[in-house]
Amino acid sequence: MRASKNLIFSLVLCFSLLLAACGVPSPTPTQAPLQPSATLAPAPTSTPLPSPSPEPTATFTPAPIVITDGLGRQITLKQPAQKVVSLAPSNTEILFAIGAGGQVVGRDAFSDYPEEAKQLTDIGGGWGELNTEQIVALAPDLVLAAEINTPEQVQALEALGLTVFYLNNPKDLEGMYENLRLVARLVGREAEAEALIKSLKRRVASVDDKIAQARERPLVFYELDGSDPNAPWTSGPGTFVDLLIGRAGGVNVGHSLGSAWAQISAEELIAQNPQIILLGDAAYGVKPEDVAARPGWEQIAAVKNQQVYAFDDNLISRPGPRMVDGLEQLVRLLHPELFP
Question: In the chain, which residue ranges form alpha helices assigned H by DSSP?
């Protein structure tokens, strides 16, 4: 029996060795497969498209400035004028007031305001001839004329190849504002002009409010030239003097005369008996005491009550923004009771 068991054990052992020699692996426990770690897949590569060529930059060409002037001519500028010659004091004052003083290269002989204007090249004019050679030498792209200049002067300048704009005198303050706008368009100063106009209108409105409180309108004689005291010159209807005296709450003696610039006899003036006399000729040395010394003038109420005043004629004879300065001064002289 023992021999049988030994035989069986020997057979099993030989079989195991035979299996091992044939390379059959022994069974192992089954395991779940390992999960791969999460990694970002590389971004797909692509060949970049070539950048489109930039479009050529469009060159901005401003529209030309086309304005009809006071002589009814259509004036064209390719761009706002940068070199201006002014032929009238009012034009010079307008140009500086709207911020274009740096664009003015020449001015007429009478242009004396603002102070900087005196430093500009004097091209004559006034009571004398214009220095056309000097004007041409300044090479202006605009010559700004006014009613102080004749149409013949305008034609002569145009014949020299210059661009001339003729600015009419305004009839009232609204017309003066429009002149500011016209000149501003010619020199590219529209925004500055509008700001100025807004300020001027505000000041005029303040004057109107004051005058609304006035109880009377004094009679005013405005003297332009009293070199002949028997027939002094004054401003008649339709003039700036007449306009502003009325706006300031007065009545102009010259309003009833037949022309814009007229003489009135001393007898008629004494008969009208103005309450206030304004000396627009004070710039020529005429003083209130000179008026009091004129024969017969001592009867006039203005002389009796010492209501004779020197007045800067430039403030109301030059159709520019300083007309509002003149209006404010007139109100204070005609209605001091409104300014306690």
Answer: 2-21, 89-97, 132-137, 151-159, 173-187, 190-211, 240-247, 266-272, 288-292, 301-304, 314-317, 323-334
For residue 56, the 8-state DSSP code is: P
Cα separation, 278 vs 248, whole angstroms: 13
Q: Do the beta carbons of residue 131 and residue 123 sit within 8 Å?
A: yes
Q: Please write down the long-range contacts of 150-154, taking CB distance under 8 Å and 24 or more positions apart.
A: 151/71, 153/87, 154/71
pLDDT tens digits, residue range 120-137? 999 998 777 899 999 999
Q: Cα–Cα–Cα angle for 193, 199, 203, nearest 5°? A: 140
Q: What is the rounded distance in angstroms from the CA atom of residue 97 to the CA atom of residue 187?
A: 12
Give the CA angle between residues 78, 82, 88 to the nearest 5°: 105
Q: Tens of pLDDT along 88-99?
A: 999 999 999 999
Model confidence at 54, pLDDT cuts 50, 70, 90, reads: low
Contact predicate 280/226, CB 8 Å: no
The larger pLDDT score, comparing residue 27 to residue 176, is at 176
Neighbour-count burial for 153-172, b at 16+ CB within 10 Å, e otherwise: bbeebeeeebbbbbbebbee
pLDDT over 70 percentage in the chain: 82
Judging by DSSP bridges, how do beta strands 233-235 and 261-263 pair with one another? Answer: antiparallel
Pairing of strands 104-107, 121-122: parallel
Token pair belonging to 80: 């706002």
Strand order, beta sheet including 164-167: 121-122, 104-107, 84-86, 142-146, 164-167
Q: Which residues contact 308 (CB under 8 A, 6 or more apart)?
A: 276, 277, 279, 288, 291, 292, 302
- Distances 59 to 56, 62, 78 between C-alpha atoms, Å: 9, 10, 15
Could you tell me how far CA 44 lies from the centroid of its own chain?
63
User: Model-level pTM?
Assistant: 0.81
